[in-house]
Amino acid sequence: MPKEKKTAASRAEGKAEKLVLEYLIKQNRPYSVTDIVNNLHNAVSKTECQKAVNALVDKELVITKLYGKQAIYVVRQDTIDLSSPAELVAMDKELVELQAKITNYKNTNKRITSELSAFNSALTTDQMKDRLEQLKIK
Question: Which residues form a coiled coil (predicted)?
């Protein structure tokens, strides 16, 4: 049997499949074809997206649910890599550390803002000299 040559169209379909699948895995929520196209910022056309989603459904990587005339697509949950309990504990620890940093940055920002406000309301050197001259004249 002769080996099939990949055409430009089949490479584009493969690229569209990859884009759509990566997006669905990253978002991990149901989408319609129109939503996928809009959220990918028109990186693929609606027709390419529909073909890609259909191919992913055929490969059993994506599940489709029909609601009347509307078709919703979601990535199969058993194909998604889950984090281990140790990774979740590490993420929780990192989250607490980052929240503490945010609190520190907010406090520092508040302190610096109040200092800036005090400096802005204070008289400049020239204004002080003028004020001193006015007081000497009186």
Answer: 88-115
Collect contacts of 55-62 with beta carbons under 8 A, ≥24 apart.
Answer: 55/13, 55/17, 56/17, 56/20, 56/21, 61/21, 62/21, 62/24
Residue pointed to by tokens 């055929």: 58
CB 48 within 8 A of CB 12: yes
pLDDT tens over the chain, length 138 residues: 455 555 666 676 788 889 999 999 889 899 999 999 998 887 889 999 999 999 999 999 999 999 998 999 999 888 777 778 899 999 999 999 999 999 999 999 999 999 999 988 888 888 889 888 888 887
- Report the Cα–Cα distance between both ends of the chain, in Å, rounded: 109
HSE toward the beta carbon, residue 97, CA cutoff 13 A? 6
Q: How many residues does the chain have?
A: 138
Q: How far apart are CA 26 and CA 9, in angstroms?
A: 26
Sign of CA dihedral 9, 79, 20, 83: negative
